[in-house]
Amino acid sequence: MSAAQPVPYFAPWNTVPFASVDFETTGIRPGIDRAVEVGIARFEQGRLVSKCGSLLDPAMPIPSEATKIHGITDEHVRGMPSVTDFFTSAAAREALKGAQPAAYNASFDRWFVPPCALADWTWPWLDALPLVRVIDRFVRGAGRHKLTAACARHGVQLANAHRAEDDARAAGELLCKLIAKQWAKPPCLGELLGWMRQREAEQWVDFQSWLARQPARETVTS
Does some domain include residue 130? Predict the structure, then answer.
């Protein structure tokens, strides 16, 4: 949780504020790549109540491959705050106050949040991706698990994909819709987090099993 207060573990999940966080980055390697934009969308009682965000100075050049995805260049981020400066700002602290962290594919985004932003950095996040993989398990096709594809299937508007505030808002709305589809009665926060962690572990095992069955690639030598 992002506030120094008892965790409402047994409270119905939809009574606990949650903050949906999204980053645009220089690449896909947490610990190596850096954030270039952040968005936070705060939800209370299942409704969006506020958004905030900023371009961020990654203190490294933005690769052209990353710019092709989100459109953010070195010129755009020159003079922008660092990720730590943003998360210590009044706007970010207010958005995260007392909120359960959430993201789409949280195992990626959470690594870009500085430890100072959360009271317990190890606390699990809510994540719509495991729900998508369960609810849409019969959907086929490349890219079917991407946020844009999942939003399109479930009626969540996302006109400005790969910009952090819009993605954060869409991810939060998608989360609310999918939880309502999966449970007739809102689960408590602890039950929901436990379910998601179990699904993530199962899906990791399934992926590793699939990977191990793939033919070995030939090594190209010069």
Answer: yes
